[in-house]
Request: fold
Amino acid sequence: MRRINHLQNLALATCLMLAATGAQAAPDTLDVSAHGATVHVTAITDTILRVTIDRDGKPGETASWAVSPAMLAHRAPATIDYGTLRTAQLTASVDPATLHLRVVDASGRAIVDDAANPVVLDRDGFTLRKVMGTDEHFFGMGDKSGLLDRRGGSFVNWNTDAFGYASSTDPLYKSVPFFIATGGAGGSYGLFLDNTWRTWFDFGHREEGVVAIGATGGPITYYVIAGPTVRDVVRRYTDLTGKAPLMPRWALGYQQSRWGYSSAAQVEAIATHLRSDHIPADVVWMDIDYQDRNRPFTFNPVTFPDMHKLTDTVGALGIKLVTIVDLHVAHAPGQAYAPYDSGTAANHFVHNPDGSVYVAPVWPGPAVFPDFTVPATRAWWGTQFKRLTDAGVGGIWNDMNEPAIFETPSKTMPIDTVHRIAGDGFAPRNASHAEIHNIYGMENTRATYDGLRALRPEERAFVLTRASYAGGQKYAATWTGDNSSTWDHLKLSVSMLLNLGLSGFSYSGADVGGFTGGPSPDLLTKWFEVAAFTPFFRDHAANDAPQAEPWVDGPAHLAIRRHFVEERYRLMPYLYSLAASNAQTGDPIMRPVFYDYPQALTAPCNTALTFTLGAKLLIAGSPKPESLQAYDVCLPEGGWFDYWTGEAVTAQPIGHKPYATISVTPRLDALPVFVRAGSIVPRQPLVQSTSQVPDGPLELHVYPGADCAGELYDDDGHSMAFAAGAYARQAVRCTTGANGVQSITFDARQGTWKPWWHAIALVVHGDHAPISATVGGKAYPAASGTRTIVIPDQPQAVTVTFNAG
Reply:
């Protein structure tokens, strides 16, 4: 093992300083060498620095699976002198004696500071050591169980089929080597280690006051992403690794699934039951049962004889079908199985070290595995979906793509299995599975996403994945894998989804009710309530678990579950506007409270099931959802309303804390939801699926307060026409005074799309209800005994003035 230690020898330090300030390897990069290693610091932007460390004079590979070639080539203006690189926002300095890196912001506050012995090189691996601030909290890391705050934890990134995982299980299905630190003297920052090998992160678990990061091999490449807020970090991280595309609107609807819908008749019966019970829904999912002998890209000729007819039948009910397609292709020589035959003919499968094709057991029995690091293989994989898209399937579910392998202790491929790398800026070469494992699932979804886009270029592609890597949000939504039907897993789902959102995966969800074990009636009902406010809302269970459809526990539970599903559909205009904003900014749809209200970072009663949907809605489930014990909710300062009643909330201040509390007594049929004062929240009349046009006006619920604003967004919900301007986006603001809301101003609508609504119902909350509104000189009265005033749609810039009673 070689350790780069602190050196005090003045002559050596002087020599190194001269080397550091001499000719640079690149005019935009700071290069400092010592002890057989060279640190390179490059300003990708004013606020994103790329740091690489070469060993023994051998430059590392500059290509990336997570960062696009365009971003890798991007540069911000920087000055380099005396071991220091400066941008307009950051200064990075490297000590020539120790290779100690320090990054400070424009005010001189340290953002990232190396600890003693900052770089340790051990054979092919390495360890980096950073100072951990006393008051810092750590978030992100993608798919990890446990507490929301990573401080005090130690984590490994190695995509793993973790069936029935516990709160202490690590690793899980996805590897996102990225964290956000916040609460320290330098505000917030992010660190992304772009290394696809087995990596590990330790947040003060092994050594107090130190964040340690390492890998068993691969490049030493990481990015420092400056804040100062968590929002800044997330936006810049998704600038670096990519934004999630705007999903089809139906992907935000309620979705029914089970491993065990084993015939077309059963799938049709589920869809019909959803409609007969008036449960709004957009998707029924189909697990491996629909396939012939569990072989991808096939249909069981007996139980699913006419897939096109099935998609038409459920489609008439406003329901899409999403089908699973695992990446293991049945090893079926001489059996006329087209995916195997065509893949073999073009050499598209992963190999053993001896050159033979790697074969291992999964659901079809012996199977082979596409080599997704080859562009030609990804293109071939994409063409295989034509049979499914021709049959009318709406989306694709990529499962088992860690990759999961049966009958082996490691649950995956041997690490010496051989992949080929080509394209994406990489020099063509062979690579071991040790290097490719953590990106294998992401490249699988990339091939699926690109294939669907090629087959249906006018339509948005929807892909769901279990395994992925940093940047995988560009290709697929995700879920938290094979969870359990326990109250603990309900709580785990919230912290996991929040950290996934902070890690770029804004479209994420958990199997409602738990995949394995079977939920109690109360657990399933409470899970429905919480999941109704999460980005991806799918009820799913294993084939050996009890039935978990909304109706299974009788009419009382069904009524509660249906009520929360209905509320999601009423909120669809708000939810869809968040999705459109996410595609532009990277802001998660579901967020920790401190994302928009930093003062809530250390609030003691925002725990477990507390989160926000956008900045305007705060969901505050019980920290002990199985209990009827009263609990306190911390509401950030500034005023809040009860979402369900529309009434202002009276919260109790706590000294000089930047939040106040309200006590809540739990009920099975209730979930506390609060609306931020100063919010304008769009809602719509109830529909049974997003394919149904709402009958009635768009509702704008106005909650008076400071910075009163909202946004409307609409498009056709499914095609790519929005990218050419066929959308409608409109900002709305309100002013308030002594008599409540005084006016609402509509900015001129952007885009060419004409939205579904022809009228707008203004619902004004607060102590003062207006009796009428004036638009363009015409008065519109409030409906008798209500706070609602209906006006025509306002596509042009206009101010609506309210008249007090």
